[in-house]
Every structure is written in structure tokens, then in C-alpha cells.
Amino acid sequence: MGNSRLPQARMYFCLDADVLFEGLAVSGGVDSMALASLCSQIQRIPYDTLRSSLQADYNKNITGTPLSKAIKFQAFVVDHGVRKGSNLEAQAVSEILEARDIPTKLLKIDWLGQEKPADLPNFESLARKYRFQALGTACRDLGISSLFLAQHQDDQAETVMMRLINGHSMAGLTGIPKCTEIPECYGLYGVHESGGVNKAHKVWTRSVLGSNTMPTPVAPLEGESGGVKVYRPLLEFTKESLIATCQEDGMKWFEDHTNKDPTVTMRNAIRHLYKNHALPATLSKPALLELSTMARIAKRATLNVTNTWLRRSSVKLETSPGTLRVRFVNLGQYDRSRVEVDGKYAAAALIRRIVMLVTPQEHVKLSSLLRAVERVFPEWFRNAEASPLSTTFTVAGLQFKFNSPPRLHRGYRLLEKCEWLVSRQPYKVTAALPRFEIPRNPKSLAPTDWSSWNLYDGRFWIRVQNLSNEVLVVRPFNKLDLAGVKRSSLWKGKRYKVQKLLSELAPGDIRWTLPAIATMALDGKERLLALPTLYVGVVDVEKLVKWQVRYKKVDMDVLTLSDIK
Fold first, then answer.
1. Residue 104: phi, psi to the nearest 5?
2. Which candidate, 129, 138, 186, 143, places its Cα nearest to that of 552?
3. Residues 545/459, Cβ–Cβ less than 8 Å
4. Could you tell me what percentage of the chain is helix, strand and coil, using 3-state DSSP and rounding each to the nearest 5?
5. What is the pLDDT along the chain (565 residues), one digit of tens a residue?
6. Packing angle between helix 30-43 and helix 6-15, nearest 10 degrees?
7. Which of 285, 399, 487, 546 is the most exposed place for a label (fewest CB within 10 A)?
8. Bridge-partner residues for 454, per DSSP?
9. CA geometry: angle at 129 spanning 126 and 132, to 5°?
10. What does the H/E/C string look like for 501-517?
11. pTM score of the predicted model
């Protein structure tokens, strides 16, 4: 990389994220050892000097509380335990990093009794999953919220090539992002989009998150925040420059011979092609990087369009039932020839940003929403027709239901679109229901012991303190539960409240998607104790169970932008 590039790389770390970085994933290869070399140098720079350099080099005003010490890094070395001698190599890497004042933690992958994991057909994907889960858990346990990875420019080009081979559209050709939530850790509390409470915004809703107390009519949206973010500060640098960095700094690295075997992974095969064959100019690395840049520009343009449309939409989130009331922008007011991006895909991107507030799914593909675009925005496809194609449909694990009619001027010109009620799609009879159990409370167990946080149905983080002598289960509210509310003496004095809450917050089939806490007897019979997201339970419920509920982390920009009128 050379001395002239080292300061730029150092500054780039801090410029990109405005937080104190701490985590560092090191494999021992030249890429991650170059990153470790740079981080080692950063640690020796006083923060005030780093701040001044940033302001001078990038004309950027750096604000925040001054730090009295230099930035520090914690390295993690993952031993997959697959190659012979991998443990010795991991230990050697650790010793090199420790010698450079980077504390290092060794992480060993547990293959759950699999004697030859490398022979598994999905070995590569499993190794990635276990590696990130080990890294994420280690970061959480040490209070680290940011993790550096050493992916570089050559990795970026190879990724674009792989996505071309796999038939990705332009949206998939953006390549590796500079910053993301940590992958492969969905549902790990404190690791993926969780671990903190977000009280920064208010929404017009009767829902409030907390313990088992009744909500006030208007309350702040209290949901999850936090989690571990991944940063890739070397994406603008070539592998050649990283090798030069290690050589210049006298940093040793280790070669993994499996990375040169073209039969092991698609990435290895692509590297083999570039090394041993002359490819067309359109598939050269510079051409692929340019394609990636064009895709990112297109993605930003689409984001700008969806932001504009969000400001002309109305989105209200009810956190207790996990529902939305949405009145989408009227696209009929736009001249399609003047929309600078693909209007149909931009509309799908708008729907995706909104449905991610309540969907039980971790990811929603843009292509899966194209049919929904025709139903939500019929005016984009048919001349001056205001009514949607259907009054109810399902997509992304959600049910869209016609809630109120559009407003028309003189019976034909659309003034305001219809309102949709968006809720969790009713569970299918054949599908496995979300469910987790809490063991009975032994007399020796301290009453302050709670269950771990569980991501229930991809929407609610729930933990329970079992004070009873029976097993508790958290699963969907059902018709037998409602019948019990109506006739059981345990619900005496609470029946009207429950029915009113269900009527107002979870009408129709929505109520059957609410989480419920029930006791489970030895014969398997279950008895409802509480509806935790509605903050209501049986008489003296606090003597049997306590709970805490938080809504999943959401994109607050969707709510704040749609609220600007």
C-alpha cells in the first residue's frame, strides 16, 4: 500500500462510521493481517491527532466528546478445526497480534459432533454461519458493537462476477456493502439488531413496550436497537496493496492451501480463471467494479425516489399487535416518463421498506413484491382507475386488507388512496407455529432469574420469569383461549378489558397472531395466563409470571418520513 496510502487507510476507518471501532476479525491470511497492521498503527496515534488529520485531509468537521486515549482494537481468530494444524496456526496468529498490542481471543467452531465437516455438501455455508455467530457472540459478550472485516477490492470484483453467474439483477450487482448488520446471526439477542432500547421517536399508537402494565393511549415506540455492525474499510484497496502493506510493515501472514483449490468454492474457481485465463474486457476486474459502482448509483437513485414517495404516504405502526395502517402515495400524480428510475421496482422498494416494519421474515426479495405493486398501485398500470385490484391479499408473510375507501373528486379523480390494514398473515394449519417453553420454577431458583430473550415470530423480543410450578409456553393466542377468557373465573373482572383490547387493536383474524403465555399441565393441556403484548393477564397474574416485551428493531426513517406533511 505504501506510506502515501497508509494515512488514507487510517483515516478511512474513522471517517466511515463516527463510532469507536473495537472488533477485528483476523483469519491469519494476508488480507486480515494487513488490516491488523493498520489497526496496530492506529492504536499508537493519539485521538486528537487523528481528529485533526481527518479534518485536514477530508475537510470534515469531527464532533463528539474528545477521547483521552487512542482507539483500541480487540481481535478475534476463528479456528474452524477442519485443517490439520489449524489450532497451532490460530495460536501463532494470536501471538503475532498480541506482540503488536492487539489483545486476541481464539474462537473454536463447534461442529456439533460432525467428525468430517469438510465433507458436508453445505460446508461452505455452514462454516460462514458458525463463524459469524462465534464472532457476533464474542463481540456481544465483550460489549463490542463494531467489527472490522478485511474484504478488499478484488473480493468485490469476484462477488460481482459470482452474482452475474447466478443471474442477479442490477440490484444484486452492488456487491459487498461497506457497512451492514452482522450476517448469519438472526435471532441472537444482543448480536443481531437488538440489545438496546430505542425511545427516540413517538408514533400515534396505543401500544407501549415494557413489562406487564396497561399502556397509555399515546406512548413512545419502545423497541429494540443495538446489535453488532460489520465494517469493511479496505474495499477500495487491491490485494496487491495489502500484500505490500504487510511486507512494508514486516507483518507475517499464513497461506491457506484450500483457497487455491478451484474445486472447493465458486470464489476459488473465479480466482483460478483470472490467474490462468484471459477473460473478455467486459469481465475484467475494473469493468466489474465499474458495474458495481453503477449499480450503487442506481440503488441510491431508487432510494431517493422512495423517500419522496414516503413523504407523500401515511404509515402508522401499532406495536402491540404488530400492525400497520398505510395510505400509499398516489402514483397517478406522477408522469412516468419523468421518473428517473424503474417505477415498478421503485414501488416495490417502497412497499418493502414499509412491510419490513411488521413482517415476520428476516429478508423480503424485491421480486416477490412485483405482483403486490399492481395491487397497491393500480393507477400506475391502468388509466385513472382508483380501486385496488383486490381487497385482500397476502405477501411477505403479511395480509393486506382493504380498510377504508379512496376519496374521489366528482366520482372519478383520485384525491386520496384507500387505506390498507397490514397485519401478520394468519398461520396456516399445516405450518409449524412459533413457540418456546419456559421450565417450571424449582424452589431453589432465585425469583429474579429470567429466560433468555427470544425473537418470537420475527416480530417481538420476549423474555419470561416463571414464578409458577408449571411449565410455561409462549405460542399464538387461539379460540380455546378466548373461550376460556369468557368462562373461567381466573378472568373474572378482566373479560371486558380483553374483549375491548382485541376489538380495537386486533380485530378479526389478527388476534390469532398475537403471542400468548400459557401454563402447560402434565397431560399437555394448556391454560391461558396472559397476552403479553396487550399487557393483560388473569387475576393475580404477577404471582405466576412476569414478562418483558420489546418490538423488533425497525427503520425509523420510514415512520418519520411518512409523518412529514
1. -130, 140
2. 186
3. no
4. 40, 20, 40
5. 444 344 444 434 444 444 466 899 999 999 999 999 999 988 877 666 666 665 555 444 444 444 434 578 999 999 998 888 899 999 999 999 999 999 999 999 999 888 888 888 888 899 999 999 999 999 999 999 999 999 999 999 999 999 999 998 888 899 999 999 999 999 999 999 999 877 554 443 333 333 444 443 334 347 999 999 999 999 999 999 999 999 999 999 998 887 787 877 888 889 888 889 998 999 999 999 999 999 999 999 999 999 999 999 999 999 999 999 999 999 988 887 788 888 899 999 999 999 999 999 999 999 999 999 999 998 887 654 445 567 899 999 999 999 887 776 555 666 678 899 999 999 998 889 999 999 987 665 555 589 999 999 999 999 999 998 899 999 999 999 999 999 999 999 899 999 999 999 999 999 999 999 999 988 889 999 999 999 899 999 999 999 999 999 999 899 888 865 4
6. 80
7. 487
8. 462
9. 145
10. HHHHHCCHHHHHHCEEE
11. 0.88
Residue reference for cell 423517500: 307
**Sequence-ordered list of residues with C-beta below 8 angstroms from that of 373, at least 6 positions apart, any chain:** 344, 347, 348, 351, 380
How many of the other CB atoms lie within 10 Å of CB of 504?
12
What is the grid cell recorded at 321? 399487535
Strand partners, 398: 395, 424
Task: End-to-end CA distance of the chain: give it in Å, rounded.
Answer: 50
Cell triple for 421: 390494514
Closest CA to 465 of 552, 551, 542: 542
Q: At what angle do helices 495-505 and 479-487 cross, to 10 degrees?
A: 150
Whose cell is 501472514? That residue is 253
Q: Residue type for 410, please?
A: R
Report helix, strand or coil for 399: strand
The amino acid sitting at 408 is L
Q: What is the number of other CB atoms lying within 10 angstroms of the CB of residue 534?
A: 26
Q: Which residue has the cell 394448556?
A: 526
Whole-number Å distance between alpha carbons of 472 and 462? 13
Q: Is 94 helix (H, G, I), strand (E, B) or coil?
A: helix
C-beta atoms surrounding 338 within 10 Å: 6
- Looking at 441-478, list the stretches that DSSP marks H as alpha helix, in order from N- to C-terminal side: none
Residues 6+ apart with CB under 8 A from 21: 13, 14, 71, 73, 146, 148, 231
**Rounded alpha-carbon distances, angstroms, from residue 333 to 126, 307, 345:** 49, 16, 18
All cell numbers assigned to 206? 396505543
Strand order in the sheet with 545-551: 196-198, 223-225, 545-551, 460-466, 454-456
Name the nearest CA neighbour of 75 among 45, 111, 37.
37
Taking the CB of residue 227, how many other CB atoms lie within 10 A of it? 22
Question: Grid coordinates in use for 53?
Answer: 488529520
88 C-beta neighbours (distance < 10 Å), count: 10
DSSP codes, 395-449? ETTEEEEEEEPPEEETTTEEEEPPEEEEEEPPPPTTSPPP-EEE----TTS-TT-
- Find the largest Cα–Cα distance for the chain: 80
